[in-house]
Amino acid sequence: MRLVLRGITKRFGSVVANDSISLTVEPGEIHCLLGENGAGKSTLMNVLYGLYKADEGEIELDGEVQHFTGPGDAMAAGIGMVHQHFMLIPVFTVAENVMLGNETTGFAGTLDLEAASARVTEISERFGFHVRPDAVVEDLPVGVQQRVEIIKALSRDAELLVFDEPTAVLTPQETDELMDIMRQLREAGKAIVFITHKLREVREVADRITVIRHGKVVGEADPKASNAELASMMVGRPVELVVHKDAPTLGEDALVVRDLRVVDVAGHTQVDGISFTIRAGEVLAVAGVQGNGQTELTEALLGLQDDVSGSITLDGVELVGRTTRKILDAGVGFIPEDRQVDGLVPGFTIAENLMLNRSFRSPFVKNGSLRLGALRAFAEKKLKEYDVRARDIDSLAANLSGGNQQKVVVARELSRDLRLLVAAQPTRGVDVGSIEFIHKQIVATRDSRIPVLVVSTELDEVVALADRIMVLYRGRVVGIVPADTPRETLGLMMTGERPKDLKDVVA
Amino acid sequence: MKTPPATPEVDRAEDSGVPPERSRSVLREIVSGDALAGVLAVLLAVFVGSVMIAATDETVRETAGYLTARPSDFLTALWDAVSGAYSAMFRGAIFNYNLADPAQQWRPLTETLKFAGPLILGGLGVGLAFRAALFNIGGRGQMLIAGGAAGYVGFQLDLPTIVHLPLAIVVGMVAGALWGGIAGLLKARTGAHEVIVTIMLNYVAYYLLFWALTKDWLLKTPGSVNPKSPPMKETATLPRVLGEQFNLHLGFVLALVAVGVVWWLLNRSTLGYRIRAVGENPHAARASGINVGRTYTVVMMVAGSLLGLAGVNQVLGTVSSGVSLDLDASIGFDAITVALLGRSRPLGILAAGLLFGAFKAGGFTMQASENISVDLVLVVQSLIVLFLAAPPLVRAIFRLPAQEAK
Description:
Number of helices of chain A: 17
CATH topology of the largest domain in chain A: Rossmann fold
Oligomer: heterodimer
Number of strands of chain B: 0
Strand content of chain B: under 5%
Helix content of chain A: 25-40%
């Protein structure tokens, strides 16, 4: 099926999310939509899927102009969408999910589950998905859940498939498998729109690349273009993708963790006897697939976990058993993995957010009342210093883009007198320009002889920032290896396998 | 690896004693709405109230019978009924133009202020808790306990005014604070939901006061069979501020002071900053070293002391003839409406409290002169809450643009 978008314009109030975007997708082609967060990719796809009505422009499928009033029309016309956040019902089986909204019924409205199961099996076998129709969705790994979404679209005879940031939730292995699936679908003659901001994936599978910036098509890129070329098209200026850092000047052992165990509320041991040391002026990066104890490790360091045993000492001072406030006061900076949940108060202004963990002491507090003058001056300064793009310091954090929100968090943490920085997923959901900036700040922190713990599920980020890499699997340390360890070895270690000839490095 | 795309927020909420996302977001919606929606809700409620006045009016119904023959009769009756009702309310609440004496003409306004005082205090108590994302339904209990305690001091002790009155006020506020603090402490320690706890504490307070009012050595008037305390001593009553001819007493002044104090607390103090942080995002507050549980306890204590002051206002001011079981005069619940209409902002609560005070004062006149049930005022008040809680409905009726998210 051939898709043509002509001059699509979509406005939200005064904001133009899509500015006369034109696009052609041919059958048997993987067409990448590349752009930063907030560039308007998802809005465009929601217009295509009938969720939004375009203010101007038209959608044409195989030469016929379409008028979608909702996703139902789009599905009927042969468009399938694989959303970033899956639209599946966790307690239903695969077959039940696939038939949902398109139920075939037998006598007196009984569900024809057998037909649905047969359909799932047929599609699954044709593309080698290895999905059982009677498996309950919540028991499946994320990558397989995504395949259920794909099966759901295919079961409705979709000829055009839209993947909206599909790899955000996947492990490296699952990402590779998804790439294979996309290639197979292309061979089967489907038209594919692949939305992403990850350059490596684009270069791997794309037949054609359209770059979108600020709601406009900037141009087409050659799939053979270098990462730097793609990035500069996306951002609109040259971007440094490599983090420049000098060899570390190491100091004393600063953070010493011994035999740390964390048990969560449900009684599961999430961190199972971890020991490591970070020296002053060093970045230790924690690699691993999401959910292998990283969250609990960082929360234990901040005193946010209740059931913690073992020992965490910072410059000789024991932190286990202390309250979060005391740990923060001891000089621990914390960039939490989910800024929306733990990092920011969305209804607060930028200025208010900048004093979030300093509501007890000077400089913003005097005799129980706020020193708004000092806070405002500080916020004005940090807004400039950290290049936070906002109207002013009274803008609500909720109204900032992901990158700017993260800059506010980073500014707050790095403005304190730190003795340790814990940065969990410091650039998740952050645009390329801000990633560059935040990475520089983290390296600068390390260069000022502060120990840094970075946790990231993006291997690129781990390799870029680390002086040493610690790989976690199921709450245990698989190994602590040098930063120049080959990616294949790291990938293997992330699945829990430790190469025989591996030697741990002690800083 | 088992990570269903369920709701991690809710899971996390359980382990940190933080309320689940949905009830907080509803609260946030109610609290963060704009003043315009409040004004529109009032207008809409008044309009629906007019329809009810018209529909229950004898003449209107009679003339409706021959509507097609003589529509002018019907329209005149309609106008008479509705305008009669609201002008009576105006005479009862603000300015009585039917009287000759200028001082007496303004008397209704002083009545409005008298009724508004405890509503403002109570509204502040409920609204402050709202800002920490807590539903304080326990206003009634907090008022009863505070009223009982202040009343005990008020009739039992013999002290000079300069000591007696402040002491009675403070004792009442402390009692309210402790009663409110129980709910906060239970939430902080055990995660017990404050709505259930405060509602139950209302019953406990009621029967505790009932019991105290049956004991001569506590609150009961010796020799009397009624559950009522002796009247307050002169030295413990809130003085009238505009002379003896008006009922307006110092309680309203205390309410104005409380508005200022709560405004400072919320917008300028570190405690208020932490209260707002906990209310807006308890996870981030916790990760920033703020003790969420302690904040809950403190907020509920301050809220309790404000409702306690509302109870004190009744016992030592409006009804100084003695503590009785109906001393709260449903203010504990009306306070919720006032806080909602005032969007939990101190100045908004001041305005909402004045409006409801006017409703209360005017309602009596409306009943007396137009024979319209005073319950109509209750209906209008309830409709205001209904329209406030359903902003999309109000927006749809007035064709306001929806708050579309990007």
